[in-house]
Write the structure tokens for this entry.
Amino acid sequence: MLILPKLENLRDVLPIEGSVRIELVEGIPIFKASTAVKNRIQELLDKLQTLPLNPDEEQELNFYEEIDDYLSFVNRTVRNLFLNQIQPTV
């Protein structure tokens, strides 16, 4: 039985239009963060190297981490389902 990761704050983070894109990799749809989201994450990580993040920035970075975990889970699930469909049954 698959257990989905819990997304507490998805509605607060993903209203950003175009924040997730779908890319076909070897015929399998893979969900990825958009370039804009990746750039924002990098900005936050760069700032974190020199200064502490303010509470809103910390929360934003945590939300992105939560989304990344969820997308990773979805991508693994989709890939496994696809691979199981093309595996010959014995």
Remarks:
- The helical segments are 10-13, 35-50, 55-86.
- The longest strand covers residues 20-25.
- The radius of gyration is 16 Å.
- Residues 41 and 66 are 12 Å apart (CA to CA).
